[in-house]
Amino acid sequence: MLAVDTGIVEEWLSEFKTAPEASIPSYAKNLKNKSFLISSLYKVIQDPQSELLEPVCHQLFEFYRSGEELLLQFTLQFLPELIWCYLAVSASKDLQSSGCIEALLLGIYNLEIVDRQGHSRVLSFTIPSLSKPSVYHEPSSIGSMALTEGALSQHGLSKVVYSGPHLQREMLTAQNRFEVLTFLLLRYNAALSYMPAVSLQSLCQICSRICVSGYPRQQVRKYKGINSRVPISSEFMVQMLTGIYYAFYNGEWDLARKAMDDILYRAQLELYPEPLLVANAIKASLPQGAIKSSKEGTKCIQVEITPTASRISRNAVTSMSIRGHRWKRHEQPDNASDTTESGNFVIPEISVTNVAGERTGNGEKSRAPAESDAQHIQGVQETPTDPRIDCKGMPEIRRQKSVRKIMEDGISSPGRVQF
């Protein structure tokens, strides 16, 4: 570690201690722009033997419990690097040099599992219903969903999953280690939109290192440091994939792709179904080419726009379409083969004073005339019942032409026809 970096960190340590209470908001706002300070803090965390590591961890914990949101986010950006340093030291069996990092991680965990009143916090997650559109799916793309009684009873109901309450921990052991680390990474993923690019890069790099350390792929990646395998849980890998998925669309395509391949490699070796499912789903949804996005802005995931009203109306289930379906079902089979002769128009079987026939559904062909002439005479006029047919006027014109043709041929007498 260079003397310049040491001077920057020492100045930062003394600056916060002497800052008055009223100037903390403005001080926190200027911290995210100090790139040299952030780079120096990363170097301190990566060196377990550094004398500045313990005061830096203490200062970061003071930031986290200060209640200032910007100071909390400043501490969270170092969380992936802190997790990797703790796991690397734990794998090398040198637990003495990771005491301050372990204390910082435990402090953040114990602060997050309780609210401001000190009560245990229960986190809730709502699983969206597949019958309603969301930013991730459209119901029309899934296929036809049968309107059964069970499906209708579940329509609109949201399933809520709860996490907690979590137990407070006084120390990290082999039994509770990944329970604590998974919760911390979940808290980090909740603030991903506030993390700078250097933090996303650190996340992708530590995910690769954790997954390939001690395996043959470590030689391919040319990662130096520890050569022993780092134990890992399935839930922790799923949380790593959540952050990597965000990094794909926010300027870190190459690092995120490498990290996802390494997670898939480790998940296949460990036979973990959950990381395999999530990683393959992410891989299948990625575009073919790399996303060229600016480091200054974010790249959103492209999704299908919710259908407009006109698109929904064509597929909507209405009372008219249900009746049309019932009429099609009750029709005689021989009616489907009836066709009209060229030049002749179809006359429906309708009484003069009362409607005796059935209304045709949308898109159905009119019924063909019967064989006897008496049945042709019965239906010469029909009161339009469908407003869509009435406004067009085409069916009424056809009936008038058909009646005129019948009268000219002498099939029916004029006295029987009422206009």
Helix/strand structural class: mainly alpha
| Head-to-tail CA distance between termini | 104 Å
Work out the radius of gyration: 36 Å
**SSE sequence, one letter per element:** HHHHHHHEHHEHHHHHHHHHHH
- What's the number of extended β-strand segments? 2
Average of pLDDT:
74
- Sheet having the most strands: 2 strands, antiparallel
Strand order of the largest sheet: 1-2
Note down, in words, how this protein is organized:
With 419 residues, the chain is an all-alpha fold. 53% of the residues lie in helices and 2% in strands. Strands 1-2 form a two-stranded antiparallel sheet. The radius of gyration is 36 Å and the shape is globular. The N and C termini lie far apart (104 Å). The model is unreliable at 294-300, 308-313, 335-346, 350-406 and 411-419 (pLDDT under 50).
Kindly list the characteristics that best describe this protein:
globular; disordered C terminus; 419 residues; 53% helix
Short summary:
Helices cover 53% and strands 2% of the residues. The chain has helices at 3-18, 24-31, 35-45, 53-64, 69-76, 79-91, 99-112, 139-142, 149-154, 177-190, 197-212, 217-221, 234-248, 253-270, 273-285, 309-315, 319-330, 373-378, 387-392, 394-409; strands at residues 123-127, 159-163.
Compile the SSE list and pairings.
Layout: H1 3-18, H2 24-31, H3 35-45, H4 53-64, H5 69-76, H6 79-91, H7 99-112, E1 123-127, H8 139-142, H9 149-154, E2 159-163, H10 177-190, H11 197-212, H12 217-221, H13 234-248, H14 253-270, H15 273-285, H16 309-315, H17 319-330, H18 373-378, H19 387-392, H20 394-409
Antiparallel strand pairs: 1-2
Helix pairs in contact: 1-3, 4-5, 4-7, 6-11, 7-10, 10-13, 11-13, 11-14, 13-14, 13-15, 14-15
